[in-house]
Each structure stands twice: as structure tokens, then as C-alpha cells.
Amino acid sequence: MSKVYAKFEVPEEIQNKALEILELSRDTGKIKKGSNEATKAVERGVAMLVLIGGDVEPEEIVMHLPALCDEKNCPYVIINKQNDVGAASGLEVGSAAAAIVKPGKAKDLLDEVLGQIAELRK
Asked: Going by fewer Cβ within 10 Å, which terminus of the chain is more open, N or C?
């Protein structure tokens, strides 16, 4: 477990699926990139899944997101490297966080991952 804000360990397989969902959603749906946009999406209740970088420095940039997601009943995944989140979002640099707003063609895969995340959090 990388950071203090990570409340549960996410297996590599689920992280990879979440990144795949982010890529598909970027191309066929709608995503929000960056911690500010992801925070707004969660607060407005439109985020379906939030991906948070596990190696963000300083960690204060994203440490509010898990608590906010819990409060708003929004699932989230800690991804080990913020560069992976940025790449899946279509950026050449790392992204501290990203939110999936509309999954597009990734709907079935999203449903599968949401079920797996729910099992992890029990």
C-alpha cells in the first residue's frame, strides 16, 4: 500500500482494467482529467469511477478524494503510477486523478470492475 490515503489494496489486474476503461471512455464516452476536475465530477454526482494516482507528490493534492468518494458513494481505484493515469487519459504527462463520467463502449467492463471493487471494500 503506497500512501496513507489508500484504504484498500487494488490488485494489478483491476488497475489495468480500470486504465483500459479510462482509455475506452476517453474515445467513446466522457472523462474528466486532473484532481480538480475529478473532484468536481464527484461533488456533482456525475463520476462513475475515479482513478487516483498512488505516487502523487505532494500527496495533499489527492488525499481528499477517497474520503469524498466514500461520502458520495462513488467507487475509486488507486493506480500505482500517475503516469499511467495520464497516458490512459490521453496526456503526455502524468495525471493525479481522472474521473469517468460516461463510459461509452466500456459500459460492460465498467460494470465488471465496479463489482470487483465492491468485493475488495468489504
From this structure: C
